[in-house]
Specification:
Blueprint: E1 6-11, H1 23-26, H2 31-42, E2 46-51, H3 55-68, E3 71-75, H4 84-91, E4 97-101, E5 123-126, H5 131-147
Parallel strand pairs: 1-2, 1-3, 3-4, 4-5
Helix pairs in contact: 2-5, 3-4
This protein binds ligand CA2.
Keywords: Amino-acid biosynthesis, Aromatic amino acid biosynthesis, Lyase
Pfam families: DHquinase_II
Subunit structure: Homododecamer.
């Protein structure tokens, strides 16, 4: 049996447009660039990197991670501000969960200040652009090692 750690990196709605629109807010890296940064940061660990525009698909993938992953990183995008379903799904996990945002929602419009994900997460990384994904992978690996 392999002891390679598996880290799920899930991305919510509109993040497929990264690098194409609004680079002044979200940067110039595409999601494919960010995936590569995660793979490099993960070293021997395996990254499962996905994006969807659909809330229920995110719920399905979170449930899948219960069986398949040692840690989960999620940029829920706008669903972080709206989704009780994501909160409930994340609360079922016993692995480390890292909420991630490229921007710092607390420094933006008031409707971005509340997150349904934060209260189900182990920790939150926000405001560091694409580099935040590498920080999140490092944080996930640290948490996985602590639990080993
Ligand atoms: O800063 C983040 O990572 C966010 O999760 C991004 C979400 C936003 O709703 C959250 O408040 C903070 C928006 C993702 C939209 O992604 C786009 C990417 C390129 C162009 C347009 C939208």
């Amino acid at each position: 049996m392999s002891d390679t750690s598996v880290i799920y990196v899930l991305n919510g709605p509109n993040l497929n447009l990264l690098g194409v629109r609004e680079p002044e807010i979200y940067g110039r890296d595409t999601l494919a660039d960010i995936e590569q940064r995660c793979v490099t940061a993960a070293g021997d660990a395996r990254i499962v990197f996905r994006q969807t525009n659909h809330e229920g698909v995110l719920v399905d993938w979170i449930q899948e991670a219960r069986e398949s992953a040692q840690a989960l990183i999620i940029n829920p995008a706008a669903y972080g501000h709206t989704s009780v379903a994501l909160h409930d799904a994340l609360k079922t996990l016993s692995i480390p969960v890292i909420e991630l945002h490229l921007s710092n929602p607390a420094a933006r419009e008031a409707f971005r200040h509340h997150s349904y994900v934060s209260s189900a997460a182990t920790g939150v990384i926000a405001g560091f652009g694409a580099a935040g994904y590498e920080l999140a992978v490092q944080a996930a690996l640290t948490k996985v090692r602590e639990r080993a």
